[in-house]
Amino acid sequence: MNQVYPWRDAPAARFAVIGDPVSHSLSPKMQNAVLQELGEPGEYIAIQVPEAEVGKALDHLSSLGFEGINVTVPNKSAARQWCERVSEFASAAEAVNTIALQGREGNNTDGPGFLETISQFPGRRATVLGAGGSARAIVLSLSAAGYEVRLWNRTEARAHELAAVIPGVVVLAEPTVADADIVINATSASLTGAVLELDWAAADPEAVAYDLMYSSEPTAFLAAAGSRPKLDGRAMLVAQGALAMEFWLGRPVPREPMRRAVGL
Ligand code: NAP
């Protein structure tokens, strides 16, 4: 667990992640490890910011001299509103997860970070389960990278809303893992221990199972995938965090110390 500061009591530092809750985040450990590796001064801390106070909190952190802010659940949409300039991808994703605070510049490294983590796998058929904020960034990125995307969501109407703005995305009426080279669990089902009913016997033996959630134990989704190649949310956490650091520092950032810090 991190030391977490309510935003009004936050000390001046160089970088932070803001969320609510934020105590579980691995970002401070991972980002401080890479700052140290790079010989960069300054610290990365965790700050609790309720969604309704994001604008006021960002103004305050800016006045304290913070350079870079990562934004996590549920604040990515409010962060986008606060920024004066937003990258094209963050605008399409309707979410900002990375802010260069002094320029009020918003970015989204979730989608590009996700793509970085699957670049070593062959196959271009992706099935995404879930149609929330992270699914949106992932479907946009997969589609732009030339993947055939199939999308399932518990509330089917939300899947149709997302598919309507991304050409070529096919909506599935039932969750299935068949006919895919990679299956991504972008639902928050694993957070509550809920189990998605999936017939892994019908899946390709080499299909990659990717759960965006991270936890110390394999999630039910990954356990059910058996001996197939697997990734959990730590892979994406590292890649999106490294891209955020590169955005702030303007220099290449090694992934290895970050991977070690999160136990990969
Ligand atoms: P979100 O916007 O709240 O969306 C939640 C999604 O999960 C919705 O599609 C929702 O379906 C679905 N869902 C919730 N409970 C379900 C259940 N019991 N069965 C089936 N579907 C269910 O959340 P998010 O921000 O996209 O986050 C989704 C997951 O990604 C979380 O586990 C989060 O921790 C993880 N994440 C990881 C990273 C990383 O760096 N590793 C980054 C971002 C997010 P309905 O539309 O039907 O409600």
Short description:
The protein is α/β, with parallel strands linked by helices and 264 residues long. It has helices spanning 27-38, 54-63, 76-82, 88-93, 110-118, 133-144, 156-164, 220-224, 233-249, 256-261, and strands spanning 4-6, 15-19, 44-48, 68-71, 85-86, 98-100, 105-107, 125-129, 148-152, 170-171, 182-185, 208-211, 230-231. 35% of the residues lie in helices and 18% in strands.
Plain-language structure description:
The chain has 264 residues and is of the alpha/beta class. It folds into two domains: 128 residues, Leucine Dehydrogenase, chain A, domain 1 (Rossmann fold); 107 residues, Rossmann fold. Helices cover 35% and strands 18% of the residues. It has ten helices and 13 strands. It has a seven-stranded mixed sheet. Strand 8, helix 6 and strand 9 form a beta-alpha-beta unit. The protein is globular and about 55 Å long. The site of NADP nicotinamide-adenine-dinucleotide phosphate (NAP) has 27 residues, from helix 6 and helix 9. NADP nicotinamide-adenine-dinucleotide phosphate binds next to helix 6 and helix 9.
